[in-house]
Design goal:
Bound molecules: adenosine-5'-diphosphate, magnesium ion
CATH class: Alpha Beta
Strand content: 25-35%
Low-confidence stretches: none
Largest sheet: 6 strands, mixed
CATH superfamily: P-loop containing nucleotide triphosphate hydrolases
Length: about 250
């Protein structure tokens, strides 16, 4: 899936968050956005999914060259856009398996067979090293931060989205869980190499695993610098402000 964000200007409650934001992610590319707290990274991810709390003042979001701004969130999801939440919510009264099966049935013309569904859930729960009973527990209820993140990746493996946004996947995950989650994502991307990915993160650890081809630095609602993995390493080494001011003169080692 090709996703293009053009001159996007977004505000919430009269506060301007995104300023002339531009980004193009082609089929099969992995991009990372790094930026300090409060720069609008989560806002960007929510706007891509059509969160109505945010007002688009100007600009467009195109999927395969067609604007998606008039589409409802479920229509965007049906196209294959998936947001892996920074803080996934819990929902009482619906089990994890009901939730995923309902979503699958909504996504596809053909209903999924129960046997096939359970087999696939069991396999993925196992490869994510989740507890087997998590299938039958209420969605994210009583799940730790790390378990919630694994549950998001479980949804990815079941729903097979074409464009995935990971909003701070690393938050809440311990080192071992992060490795398990990243191994699962890598395996998914190997199986479905046309998947496009946007990784939003503060840390390079997840980038070491998932190896984005492009890294962007975001400040005050816009991308101020783009590069490759070296940019992420510089941000880690020098911090956001210094990396920005050093510009291109820092590639001395
Ligand atoms: P990031 O993910 O980069 O840390 P966010 O996108 O969450 O940043 O937030 C960007 C700015 O917009 C912050 O100052 C935040 O407080 C503000 N903001 C985001 N969503 C809302 C909202 N629904 N209501 C009010 N302010 C918001
Ligand atoms: Mg955020």
């Amino acid at each position: 899936m090709n996703l293009e964000i053009k001159d996007l200007n977004v505000s919430v409650k009269d506060k301007k968050i995104l300023n002339n934001f531009n980004l193009k992610i082609n089929t099969g590319e992995i991009h990372a956005i790094m930026g300090p707290n409060g720069t609008g990274k989560s806002t960007l991810s929510k706007v891509i999914l059509g969160d109505k709390n945010y007002t688009i003042e100007k600009g467009d979001i195109l999927v395969d060259n067609e604007s998606i701004l008039s589409l409802e969130t479920y229509e965007r999801a049906r196209k294959g856009i998936f947001l892996c939440y920074q803080n996934p919510i819990s929902i009482d009264g619906i089990t994890n398996s009901e939730f995923i099966r309902t979503a699958l049935n909504e996504q596809n013309e053909k209903k999924v067979g129960l046997y096939e569904f359970i087999k696939s859930m069991e396999k993925n729960i196992d490869s994510l090293k989740m507890q087997p009973d998590m299938m039958h527990r209420n969605l994210n209820q009583g799940f730790s931060g790390g378990e919630r993140k694994k549950n998001e990746v479980l949804q990815i493996k079941m729903l097979k989205p074409k464009f995935i946004i990971f909003d701070e996947l690393d938050s809440g995950l311990d080192v071992d869980s992060l490795k398990i989650v990243c191994d699962n994502i890598k395996e998914y991307l190997q199986e479905y190499p046309n998947t496009s990915v946007l990784l939003i993160t503060h840390y390079t650890r997840i980038l070491d695993y998932l190896k984005p081809q492009y890294v962007h630095m975001m400040k005050n609602g816009e991308i101020v610098e783009s590069g490759d993995y070296t940019l992420a390493k510089n941000i880690e080494k020098y911090g956001f402000d210094k990396t920005f001011f050093l510009g291109d003169d820092k590639n001395d080692e």
